[in-house]
Each structure stands twice: as C-alpha cells, then as structure tokens.
Design a protein that fits this description.
The structure is a single chain. The chain is an alpha/beta fold. Helices cover about 35% and strands about 20% of the residues. The radius of gyration is 20 Å and the shape is globular.
C-alpha cells in the first residue's frame, strides 16, 4: 500500500541480497502459527511458510484479522498440505519506532525466508512499498511470494502510474516469483472515481503520502478521471510527519473543492489531514482507498477521525460483502467460532484465502510439494480456482483476474460497513 525515499529505493533495488543486507537491521520478530509444526521441526516431510506483515501501528486493525485468517486456514487443514507438515511463521515487517512497515525489517524478513531451504511460500507484503524491498531478495532465492493486499501497478506491470524500470527491476533473476490476489490500483482508482461521480463530486482535491501506493494511486486517479467525468483540481504530495495540514486545507478551499481524496495509508498523516480539510470544508465529502478503509481511520475511539466526519466518508477495499462470497458465511462462522468475532475486518478473508491457496497448491503437487520451482509454476498455472473469494486465476504478470472493489461507508459504531460492489468498465492500459 507505498514511495520509498531515494536512498532506501536505491538500496532496495540494488538487485542483490548482499546490497540489501546493508539497508537495515537483520533482526525480525517472529512466531509460529497455531496448527503448524514446531519452528524447530526437522522432518523431511516439512515445508516452511512465512508471512511478513506490519504487526505494530495503525495497520494492525487490518493485519491482525489477516493473520487470524491465515492461521484459521492452516488449523482447518490440520497443519498439513497433503503429505507435507506445514511450519508457519508470522514475521513482523514493522518497528515500534516507525509505527508502520520498515525497510530494514522488511529486508531482514525476506532474507530469513530466502536463506531457508524449506521455504516454499511467502505471504506478503501488506504494503506495496515493502514489497519493493522484499521481491528482489526473494526473487533471487526463487521463493514464491503472494501478497494478500498489494495494489501498486508497478510491482507487476509498466502500466501508467508505474515508475521507470518497473517491474523488471524487481526481478533480477529474470523469472517472475511474485503474485497477488487483490486487483491492482488501475481498477481501484476507477472504482474510486465511480464512487465520487455517483456522490456528486464536481471538484476533487487529492493528497498522497508519497509512498509507491499513494503516489501511484493518485496518478491513476488523474489518468482515469476523464473516463468517469470527475474533475481533479490538484494532486499534492504531503509530508506524513507534518504536525498539521491547515495550509493545505486552506489551499483546497481556495480551489473550490467539494470532495477530498486521500491516497495513502493511515499512519502517514491520514487522520490529521482529514480533520484539517474537514475544518476548512465542513460539507466536503471525503474518500479514500484500501489504505485507509479500516477502523483505525474511520473510528474515533480507535484513533481515527471524529464521529462527525463519518457520514461524509466513503472508501474502497478489494473485499465485498463477506457473507455474499462463495463460502463467505461458512468462513465467518468458522472465524467467529475460533476468535469470537463474527464481523472481522474484510482483510481476514484474504488472509484465509492466501493460505488456502498455498495449502492446496502444495497438496496438489504431491511429492513435489517441497519444491519452490514446482510451487511457483503451479501458482502461475492457476486459471480457474474455486475459492472463498469466487473463481479466479492469475495472468502472466501474477495479477489476479478478479476485477471488483467494494465501496464502504461508515457504520454508526464508526467501523467501515459494506455498501455496494463497484466493477469498473474502463481503466488505463
């Protein structure tokens, strides 16, 4: 979810594990998932699966349920994938100091998996900027990587909105090793424009957090605005560490904006900039994408925006009405039985599916289930998988064939509540 600073980006894209080792700490937080074999398992019938997600900071409202979904799928399978016992480790790519994903920690997580001869599947990252760091490391080691959340187009394509040299610079081996089960931002941006048009927006001010995700999404909004008849009056990169954004809010007022869109993640100033814009434009409708479509942004008691802003806010996430998915009701029942919550953050179901995909792929390979190359080939050969999300496959770039986004409004308790499904008819190509 996404623009690294020039120093970090240069280091991350150096194309070697050794170069990346100098980018940050080599330590990482980890823990074995329930239903898995012991982390010290040495059986020849054991394979290792890792996840790397931010487990500190504002994103935990989404990632904690996601990890629960991952563990639920593994528990239901009895900790096995066919003949293989699965050892799952949940790694944290964030630090307490950063309060979000950290480049050095992300690199350390990827190196850990890359050095593990039994690693056959890596779940991550949650943030697209983090995947810019981890993909090259895992690619050199041939470790299959599947993200349950990344949407930045440049990780897999050179579509408008990507940066020069993308995506080739993430794959130093020359072979693709990365896939994702969520639709890319060219689709999400179009869905957001549909939502803003339907809400009656005439002049939209866009602010982005300068990460790959935020900056890329904002660019796509501008590129696709003509398809949906939306006028964007400005696209401004902000300093996420600024104490306030009153000057920016004053500028948007002068531009005559009647809607505001934040392209970025919660921990990058999303709450403060929304409050300041609302103060300057109290009737302006407010929009965001999956980076902010979570209770840590929408709910006041969770540190989000004031309740008075809730009726003005809408956001998109790749997930739709969980109970309407094929197998969605069964998933929700199982999740509630295991964790006590019957309405988890929508990303829980993506965690569940990303692990189910791993287990089914490994199981289907039989004796070859411990082969990285066999797992990778099988993943890229997936064309019509029947899953809890519906039927999908992957294209040659590793992108999912799913094409819809869910539009969410804010419920009375401040949490995002599914409103309707948006399926764009036109995107940049």
């Amino acid at each position: 979810m996404r623009f690294l600073g020039h120093a970090v980006r240069g280091c991350a894209l150096a194309g070697s594990v050794v170069a990346l080792a100098a980018c940050g700490s080599s330590s990482s937080s980890s823990g074995s998932g329930s239903g898995s074999a012991s982390s010290g398992a040495s059986s020849s019938k054991t394979v290792d699966i890792y996840s790397s997600l931010p487990l500190q900071g504002a994103s935990t409202a989404q990632t904690d349920p996601m990890v629960n979904g991952i563990k639920l799928a593994l528990s239901e399978a009895g900790g096995k994938a066919g003949q293989w016992t699965v050892n799952y480790q949940s790694l944290d790519d964030s630090t307490a100091a950063a309060g979000k994903w950290d480049p050095g920690q992300t690199a350390a997580n990827a190196r850990k998996a890359a050095a593990d001869p039994k690693a056959v599947y890596y779940i991550g990252e949650f943030n697209s900027g983090a995947s810019e760091v981890s993909i090259p490391i895992l690619n050199q080691a041939g470790v299959p990587q599947v993200s349950p959340a990344n949407t930045y187009v440049g990780l897999t394509t050179n579509l408008p909105g990507s940066a020069p040299g993308e995506p080739q610079k993430y794959y130093p081996s020359g072979t693709r090793t990365y896939l994702r089960i969520v639709p890319i931002d060219s689709i999400q941006a179009a869905a957001d424009l549909m939502a803003m048009k339907q809400a009656g927006c005439t002049k939209v001010a866009v602010a982005n957090d300068k990460e790959a995700y935020g900056a890329g999404l904002a660019t796509l909004l501008e590129l696709e605005k003509g398809y949906y008849g939306v006028t964007i009056v400005s696209n401004t990169g902000i300093d996420p560490t600024a104490p306030n954004f009153r000057s920016y809010a004053s500028t948007t007022k002068g531009q005559g904006a009647d809607c505001f869109f934040f392209a970025g993640i919660v921990s990058n100033g999303a709450v403060q900039i929304t409050k300041d814009v609302h103060s300057a434009l109290p009737t302006a409708k407010i929009f965001g994408a999956d980076g902010v479509c979570t209770s840590s942004y929408t709910q006041a008691k969770a540190g989000g925006v004031p309740a008075s802003i809730g009726p003005l806010l809408q956001c998109t996430v790749a997930t739709q009405d969980l109970s309407a998915y094929p197998g969605g009701k069964a998933f929700l029942a199982s999740y509630k039985a295991k964790y006590g919550s019957g309405s988890p953050d929508p990303y829980a179901i993506y965690g569940y599916e990303v692990m189910k995909l791993a287990l089914d792929t490994i199981k289907g390979l039989g004796a070859q289930g411990n082969s990285k190359s066999a797992v990778l080939k099988a993943l890229f050969s997936t064309t019509s998988r029947n899953s809890v999300l519906g039927t999908y496959g992957f294209d040659k770039n590793g992108d999912t064939t799913l094409k819809s986004y869910g539009l969410y409004k804010v419920a009375p308790d401040g949490t995002p509540a599914f409103y309707k499904t948006l399926t764009p008819t036109k995107t940049v190509t």
